[in-house]
Amino acid sequence: MKLTALQATRNYIRKREGSNLFCAVEETSVTLEPGTLTVLSGPSGSGKSTLLNMFAGLLPPSSGQILLDDTDLYHLEDRELSRLRNLHIGIIPQGQTALAAFNVQDNILMPWLLYGSRKNEAFSEKRKRAEELMEAAGILELRREMPSGLSGGEIRRMAVCRAMLQKPEIILADEPTGDLDEENTAVVMDLLKEHAASGGTVFVVTHDIQVRTYADRMLSMRKGVVTEE
Amino acid sequence: MTESLSFKNLTKRPGRALALALLCAFLCFAALAGSLFVTGLRQGLSSLETRLGADIMVVPYEATSKSRLSDMILQGNPGYFYMDSAVMDKLRSMEGVGEISAQFFLATASSSCCSAAVQIIGFDPATDFTIQPWVKHSYQGELGNMQVLVGNDLNAFPGDVLTFYGSDVTVAAKLDRTGTYLDTAVYANPETIRTLIAQAMEKKIYDFGDIDPYEVVSCVLINAADGYVTEDVLNEINIHVRKVEAVQTSALLSDVSSKLTGLSSLIGWLIAAIWILAIGILILAFVMISNERKKEFAVLRTLGASRGKLAGLIMKESLLVSCFGSLLGAALALLAVWLFGGAAENAMGLPFLLPKAGGLILLSAVSIAATILAGSLAAAVSAFRISGIDTAFILRGDDGRS
Lengths: 229, 402
Ligand SMILES: Nc1ncnc2c1ncn2[C@@H]1O[C@H](COP(=O)(O)OP(=O)(O)OP(=O)(O)O)[C@@H](O)[C@H]1O
Ligand SMILES: [Mg+2]
Description:
The complex is a heterodimer of chains A (229) and B (402).
Chain A: E1 3-14, E2 20-32, E3 36-41, H1 48-55, E4 63-68, E5 71-72, H2 78-88, E6 89-92, H3 104-113, H4 121-137, H5 152-164, E7 170-174, H6 182-197, E8 201-206, H7 209-212, E9 217-222, E10 225-228
Parallel strand pairs in A: 3-8, 3-9, 6-7, 7-8
Antiparallel strand pairs in A: 1-2, 1-4, 4-5, 9-10
Helix pairs in contact in A: 3-4, 3-5, 4-5, 5-6
Chain B: H1 2-11, H2 14-52, E1 56-60, H3 67-75, E2 83-84, H4 86-92, E3 97-107, E4 119-123, H5 132-135, E5 147-150, E6 161-164, E7 167-174, E8 185-188, H6 190-202, E9 216-217, E10 219-224, H7 230-240, E11 244-248, H8 249-292, H9 294-302, H10 307-348, H11 357-387, H12 391-396
Parallel strand pairs in B: 4-8, 5-7
Antiparallel strand pairs in B: 1-10, 1-11, 2-9, 3-4, 3-10, 5-8, 6-7
């Protein structure tokens, strides 16, 4: 599946400066292609997260469209969009996003648990999938741990596994290596790279120079304007 | 499978869940204990009304230093008084007198069945219209000589032999609970009572003065005949029959029923106040908790939870909590009423009769349902708020920016 921004813009109202509209993303048209790991870099405040959230179906553009293949995400009902996100778009948000009440394995299984049961065949398949992912991310032995007992890098790796559980065609990662050391960065980026190599559409927003080396395609963003590098 | 998610969420934060559950338990307890209390009093009064069951009581004039009569009837303090049985014939011949039956009172010294003195009530099976309808529930036979029926609160059972004034009587049956003074009394036919009085006098165990036990009655119960007004009949009796006083039973009870009305409305207001307060606290608690959990819900959104699903999650969590809490509260309320109902009854000096199992179940079910409804209402407020969260905005908050 491909994800397209079509003349998408996003304004915010900035209360501090009167009620002036502040344009975080200028008119942007860009298509994220399957089989490609696209890296978007740019200074803080340039609108990277804003663009990513629009791609994720979490933030409606002020004008323009976001298309998943030919479907306009923001013309869907919340229920349909949510289910679509659940099945087809894996999101690794910026920051720490562990669910504190669940252990590592249940955190990773959460996209399935939201709509599926713990009892059937399909669940044991999902669990196997989760185990494979944890194995690849090097956190298999932590599966029964609660997030409070994990390091930032381990939690990030958990979030990556969680985003990949449903084998989504699209993965959107906001600073997935933000607070990780080189080693952890490599583990996470290898997972994402692998996903792209097997036909997935991967979009990574980052400051990190190391991440650029994994890119199939480089974009940069400055003051809401996206340019190809 | 959001049920198990809700359950996990709760069990992982037991303190929070418990606090909410206890709040619900408190709600349910207040509602159930309060309403059981009020119903108990209401039923006690109506039980007393039906057991008194007559429009007019005629008693010897000296008995109407009224407190004696009402002490006896409302609080079950044993007592006795006698008048000439010729009164009976006079009353029977009066205009406006319908059903009429005599009763005999006798207070015993303590006996084997009972820690304190016992009231013995004699009634005439041929004419009685107040006691027998109630007796019929537990005893269908004809009460023989030296046989008695015992009230529900007495520690005596069918077949037991009790000794009053040196005479043995056999317990024929134990009667249904009424919640009134009748529960601590013993019932016999007039022959038995007279025999007891005679023997007590013979053995000089007790001094009844110079009465002839075969020529006295204690009180006469009267219903006004069809077409006659109770007050008129009452006045007729008080004017024309000497040395007796006719008392209207409803007047005897009016004191109790006004006390009861006051108490009921007080408890009603109390319950209402508790509920308003507790629902307010519940709403606040749910909103605070869900504010604190905004990030968690935003993460679930990124994982594909719809707004409806988040709302459902909150509602299910609150349902689990309020179910657990209200069951706990109901159980505690039943326990409290069962343990302390009797004490309260004595302290207030009012008749008290708990509803039967069916009524208990119904009241409990209503309280539990109301509590769950209140919990759901409180949760709905935060479910509504949470389902409207701006996921992108909340996820930004993580880095200390806003
Ligand atoms: N909800 C909002 N209300 C007002 N302004 C906002 C809002 N969200 C973002 N902004 C502003 O829009 C601009 C772009 O924000 P965005 O989070 O997309 O930047 P970013 O490129 O992801 O930055 P970083 O690299 O620090 O994460 C910033 O100037 C920010 O202050
Ligand atoms: Mg950002």
